[in-house]
Amino acid sequence: MLRQPYGGETLSRAAVFQWWRHFKDGNIQVIDKACSSRPSTAVTDINIAKAAELLENDRRLTLRKLSASLNIFERTRHIVTEILQIRRVCQVDTQESHRRADAMTSSRVHEHCSNV
Hints:
- By secondary structure, the chain is mainly α.
- The protein has helices at 3-6, 13-24, 45-57, 63-70, 76-83, 94-115.
- It starts with a helix and ends with a helix.
- The relative contact order is 0.08.
């Protein structure tokens, strides 16, 4: 009934019933209640300070190694780029990338030699 004049900006039927139940139960507040979800444990003052210290001591530290040092894996890039405002971060460990390249080359050579 409301979708004809208002289009896609109207609430779904299920949402209308949820709000109806909310107000029927006596809840007149429309603000969100505190969630019971876990608080963020990655972006803390301690982790930010540790990241700053580690990057100050070694500017060639990769995000992967920094994450491992801090023992956090989901928000390291956010800490470095958004909070510490460090724009240039070493993306690849050069020794590690050389080992990978050598391993790929040797496997390709081995495949080629076995096919001949």
